[in-house]
Amino acid sequence: MSAGADAGTTAAIPVESDDGHRFELLAHIPPAARRSLLWLPALGVAARHYLPLARALAGHGVAVFLHEWRGHGSSQLRAGRDCDWGYRELLALDIPASQAAVASAAPGLTRIGGGHSLGGQLAACRLGLDDGAFGALWLAGCGAPYWRAFPLPQRLWLPLAYRALPWLARRAGSLPGRRIGFGGNEARGVMHDWAGTATSGRYAAPGVGDLEPGMAKARVDVRAALFAQDWLAPDASLRYLLSKLPGASAETARFDAGTLGAPADHFAWMRSPEVVAGWFCGSGPASS
């Protein structure tokens, strides 16, 4: 597939990681695309839910590739007692496989990485392993989960949640996110690594080590969209995440419901992403 693909067509590109994990990368490539974006979903969200965003960005000349998390959507794996993984597999195996597929499908384009919530964090963490992986980062509803980076009253109960969720995942074999209203069916290792950052404030995980020295070396342009009613990613948590990228040039915008034409919470913007897509591409309004 080339960058001249029909702008109205979404293609599914088969991808296989080095350990045999298979999934599909959803690609939406407009004619004469100038930039490519590898977009990483939020925790527990399948890639297909970002197709409206892909179509909106394609209208601005961006070739969009929607990554699929291990254990969700088109992935052939599902987390359970006999099937587990952590940040190592996501960062060192699956994302590089998608990067290679993007390079093959849309060669020669400026490379952007980005994502929503955990996806944005792991796009930044990928720079910890390869500080040249992306030339820019686009983030939406994204911030570090570190409990001290949250305002009251969340700061009072978040440490308890950060201990309870990995415990529940260990006890059940995987986190039953759909039942408890947080994430999806998540692997024990992912919840362990996520909670490690949430409690310590550092991005590090078994198998990949301390990611922050590499993140500090990255020289990237960052555009980060916040949402006025998004308690899962408040301003302070985004600032804390950006502090891990001191070499970045960052621009942020805060969107309210009036600007979006939709509730300005953690997920509703995904159904009406045109304003956010326009801002990522250098146009469109945002509130301060």
Account of the protein in words:
By secondary structure, the chain is an alpha/beta fold. It is built from 10 helices and 12 strands. The chain has helices at 51-58, 87-105, 118-129, 154-172, 177-180, 188-200, 212-217, 235-242, 257-260, 274-280, and strands spanning 10-16, 22-28, 35-40, 62-66, 110-116, 136-140, 175-176, 185-186, 204-205, 209-210, 221-227, 249-255. The longest helix is centred in the middle third of the chain and has 19 residues, at 87-105. The N and C termini lie far apart (40 Å).
Structural shape: globular
- Model regions low in confidence, pLDDT < 50 over at least 5 residues: 1-6
Number of strands: 12
Q: Ends: how far apart?
A: 40 Å
Q: Biggest sheet, strands in spatial order?
A: 1-2-4-3-5-6-11-12
Strand % is 15-25%
Mean of all residue-level pLDDT scores: 95
Specify the number of helices. Answer: 10
